[in-house]
Amino acid sequence: MGVHDTTASGTVSGRRLTLNPLALLGNVSEGRYWAYWLIIPSLILVAAVILYPVISGIGLSFQEMRPTMPDRNGFIGLEHYQDLLTDTVFQKAVRNTLVWVVVGVISQFMMGLITALALNKGGILMKIAGVIVLLPWIMPSVVAGNIWALMLDSRLGVINDIFVKIGLLEQYKAWFADPNTALPATLVISLWRGFPFFTLLLLAGLQAIDDDLYEASSVDGANRWDQFWRITLPLLRPVIVATVVLRVIGLVNSPDLLLLLTNGGPGHATQVLSLYAFQKAYTDFDFGYSGAISVVMFLILMVFTVIYVRVTRVAED
Q1: What is the spatial distance between Cα 122 and Cα 317, in angstroms, rounded to a whole number?
Q2: What is the pTM (predicted TM-score) of this model?
Q3: 91-135 pLDDT, tens per residue?
Q4: Alpha carbons 272 and 74: distance in angstroms, whole number
Q5: Coil, strand or helix: which one is 75?
Q6: For residue range 144-196, what is the model confidence (pLDDT) as tens digits?
Q7: What is the torsional sign of CA 140, 188, 254, 106?
Q8: Pairwise CA distance, residues 280 & 36, whole Å
């Protein structure tokens, strides 16, 4: 008597069982936590691709990790960071990184802005010039580095030949073998290689500015210089902030040109943090020390990005 009868139509005590997946999904989607369920796959992907490598790299900096000396491997705490404080090569790399990034970003931005303003004039010739300008950026670093190494060669370099013929040099010069010229020479190559990045993005920002603003300012008596300072630069500020941050990150993290041209020499004159970390990992096989250098680079970039974005926001306000 106490047992409910179940009919063939799928009812229990007069109530029909709801087994429709779409109905269940509809009920869940009406809940307040539905949005959190949707982002779970993205969070898992971010954790796997970004968070895990970062945490793993930070953890590596507190360990001795030498494949050639497995008996010494293990947790050593802050020993690597203590060694960095007395490492003269690391100190030289910090100074060179500062010069490499500051001079590189400023020079590349200025040339990129000038080029973008010129290309923004329009016309078929400017379109052709725009394609030519992008060639250094899309060229592989290995190709670009070898081309410049040949042009600056102390025996066969065409640049040396030109400078000697016009009287700027008395004899061919080994640009990358002189500590006084190695870093400036690589900065010139970095300028040639990197300014198209600024040109491309700044040109896109310039083309997004409404021409009516310039026409209205001309009616009010503004000249080209006033238009540049009061219209162009303020409206380009979001693009400028993004491009500067991205380029700083790129210059700090990419030792490819220096690795190809100088390998940090002569006498560590072109040694930077990213190249030093690379050499410690894949030349000395000291992955723990390399991890400590990488953590320092990460902290420097984080501090710079936060300060730069806040300062530019204050200036905008």
Answers
A1: 33
A2: 0.85
A3: 999 999 999 999 999 999 999 999 999 999 878 888 888 889 999
A4: 28
A5: strand
A6: 999 999 999 988 899 999 999 999 998 999 999 999 999 999 999 999 999 99
A7: negative
A8: 42
DSSP 209: S
Classify 12 as helix, strand or coil.
Answer: strand
* 311, amino acid identity: V
Cβ atoms within 10 Å, residue 137: 16
DSSP 247-314: HHHHHHH--HHHHHHTTT-STTTT--HHHHHHHHHHTS--HHHHHHHHHHHHHHHHHHHHHHHHHHHH
**Beta carbons within 10 angstroms of residue 64's beta carbon:** 17
The residue with tokens 């001795």 is 64
The alpha carbon torsion through 248, 253, 254, 258 (nearest 10 deg) reads 100
3-state secondary structure of 121: coil
Sign of CA pseudo-dihedral 21, 23, 25, 27: negative
Residues 6+ apart with CB under 8 A from 173: 154, 160, 163, 181
Burial grade of 20 (CB within 10 A; 0-12, 13-18, 19 or more): exposed
Q: Is the dihedral of CA 150, 151, 152, 156 positive or negative?
A: positive
Contact 296, 84 (CB under 8 A): yes
* 8 A C-beta contact, residue 182 and residue 266: yes
Which domains, from first to last, does the chain contain?
A: 16-60 (no CATH), 82-316 (1.10.3720.10)
Q: Cα–Cα distance between 109 and 196 in angstroms, integer?
A: 9
